[in-house]
Design a protein that fits this description.
DinB/YfiT-like, Maleyloyr_isom, single chain, isomerase, MDMPI_metal-binding, 5% strand, 204 residues, mainly alpha
Length: 204
């Protein structure tokens, strides 16, 4: 669905705005994404924006088909010597429409989840377009864990958004804001505190 690109581009622009006035200490702050800092996540988003169907095959081969190694090499390649340089690189790729061989809604997941990986630890609040969050949530819910999704994780429960008309699955209910549901099923355990219901423990 080509209509994903305007939403992706808007999210990239919003994140650039939020990054513009950060201090160096904030750029070095731990993100919600593993051991990566805010600076590392920004570099990862640059690499994602530049990824092509052929390019990811070459990069995976260089990483000996280790996905985590491929991501780490992408961060190292795209991270600038200074936050300003990295920000400039992010601005340069903000309107790109290149993509790996994956459904286009995966581009929304990258922008929303990684945007929150940066914003939440820094106390930056963004009200995302509902469509961006809902489509990301639905994509993660139907995508196997082996491909970065949460299909098997959520199989025992029902996800119900309290701020959108979304209900996914059956079983013990997990309810809360759609954004927090998305973050929780994307492996961000800190978002579990935003959720209620008898099924929450299944996501821990």
């Amino acid at each position: 669905m080509n209509d994903v690109w305007p939403i992706v581009h808007a999210e990239r622009a919003a994140l650039i705005d939020d990054l513009t006035d950060l201090t160096d200490d904030q750029w070095d702050h731990p993100s919600l994404c593993g051991d990566w800092t805010v600076h590392d996540v920004a570099a990862h988003l640059i690499n994602n924006a530049k990824t092509t169907r052929l390019g990811i095959v070459r990069n995976m081969a260089r990483a000996r088909f280790n996905f985590d190694r491929q991501n780490a090499q992408g961060v190292e390649r795209e991270r600038g010597a200074t936050p300003r340089q990295t920000l400039a690189r992010l601005q340069q790729v903000a309107t790109r429409t290149s993509t790996p061989p994956a459904p286009l809604d995966s581009r929304l997941v990258e922008e929303v989840v990684h945007g929150e990986d940066i914003r939440r630890p820094l106390g930056i609040n963004r009200i995302y377009p509902s469509e961006a969050v809902v489509r990301s949530l639905q994509y993660q819910a139907r995508t196997p864990v082996s491909l970065g999704g949460a299909k098997q994780l959520i199989a025992p429960v029902q996800l119900r958004a309290t701020d959108a008309d979304v209900s996914i699955g059956g079983g013990p209910e997990v309810c809360g804001p759609a954004l927090s549901l998305l973050m929780a099923i994307s492996g961000r355990k800190s978002a579990l505190g935003d959720l209620d219901g008898p099924g929450v423990s299944a996501l821990e």
